[in-house]
Amino acid sequence: MKTTFMANAQNVERKWYLVDAEGQTVGRLAAEIAKVLRGKNKPTYTPHVDTGDYVIVVNADKVKFTGKKLVKKTYFRHSGYQGGTTFTPAGQMLEKFPERVLEHAVKGMLPHNRLGAQMFRKLSVYAGPEHPHAAQQPEKLEFNIR
């Protein structure tokens, strides 16, 4: 009788992947990155264990939005004080903090619990083409995104 394989923290092998975000659509790219962070691209995927890999994203300042999202989409923040709400348009956010745009999109696609927070820590996003993770020898990862 065969038993179902259940991964645990001891037998998870992690890789490092490098993703170039230049010219990619934010949401479609974020969905593929979230799959890799969760480990859904592996045959050993187990829902209650972090089986995902590390992802490094470069050229985050060159991502694109479809339609009129640069003007109409807003990001919400609250300072904690009364009347402390701040709404930032996507175009302005992309100019000032390009890393946060992709981080926000990916974080929303991960589980909203401690496991999701653990997965999110394996994501590194950089605005330019340079990154400090050369020692990890990341593999280039390309997605078939329209």
Q: In terms of topology, how is this protein built?
A:
Elements: E1 16-20, H1 26-38, E2 54-58, H2 69-72, E3 74-78, E4 85-89, H3 90-96, H4 98-107, H5 114-120, E5 123-125, E6 139-140
Walk me through this protein's architecture.
The relative contact order is 0.24. Strand 1, helix 1 and strand 2 form a beta-alpha-beta unit. The protein is globular and about 60 Å long. Helix 1 packs across helix 4. The chain has 146 residues and is an alpha/beta fold. It has 5 helices and 6 strands. Strands 5-2-1-6 form a 4-stranded parallel beta sheet, covered by helices on one side. It has a two-stranded antiparallel ribbon with strand order 3-4. The protein starts with 15 loop residues before the first strand and ends in a 6-residue tail after the last strand.
| H-E order | EHEHEEHHHEE
Largest sheet at a glance? 4 strands, parallel
Strand content: 15-25%
Number of separate helices = 5
Structural class by SSE content = alpha/beta
What percent of the residues sit in helical stretches (DSSP H or I)? 25-40%
Q: Low-confidence runs (pLDDT<50, min 5 residues)?
A: none
Q: How many extended strands?
A: 6
- The strands making up the biggest β-sheet line up spatially as 5-2-1-6
Ends distance: 43 Å
What would you call the shape? Answer: globular
Rg measurement, Å: 17 Å
- Give the averaged pLDDT, no decimals: 95
